[in-house]
Amino acid sequence: MQQRHGPIRVLIADDHPLLREGIAAVIAGQPDIELIGEASNGVEAVDRYRHLQPDVTLMDLQMPELDGIAAIRAIRDEFPAARIAILTTYQGDVRVLHAIQAGATGYLLKSTLRKSLVETIRTLAKGKPHFPAEIAADLACHLGAEPLSRREVEVLRCIAQGQSNKAIARQLGLTEETIKAHVKNLIAKLDASNRTHAVAIALRRGIIDMA
């Protein structure tokens, strides 16, 4: 690998100005890192990346207009070597997996920014991935597990909203027996004891959210 010349150029994409200001303040204290741009939504993030082509991008998971996963995918389609870390409050192996599949090479929890921000930026700038140990362990724990189908996730979201099988069947245009079969399958796949337990597991793993 070629030796770097000049500071690591960083782009931040997050819809919360205070968080961007906090990250900027940390970066300002590092002589080898330079903040070169900010974006407040996913569309801006793709546009800023295209024009600035930073060394490292910090990308919020949930943003207006285009979410972080879609923005990463768009950037990596155009710039395959882009080094992007997901910046999020959300933990869960499924969210991590989706980020990796989109092209993320790092994962930063907002709750640990003060401790891990600078290390993550420097690691990614060297072309190496950076995932916190607890995130990597959580991901490894579920490797090989059978994923829920798109329909099973839809059913699970309805269950999380407190809907009965009859109401779910009516909403999705399916028979109640089909819904019962989906519920049985998703409970088995998640190794849950009942519907409520399945929802709790899905929320923890990032399969669904309550937004």
UniProtKB/TrEMBL annotation:
Keywords of this entry: DNA-binding, Phosphoprotein
CDD domains noted in UniProt: LuxR_C_like, REC_NarL-like
Ranges of residues in domain Response regulatory: 9-125
Keyword 4Fe-4S: no
Residues bearing PTM 4-aspartylphosphate: D60
Domain HTH luxR-type: 144-206
Protein name: Response regulator transcription factor
Provenance organism: Salinicola lusitanus
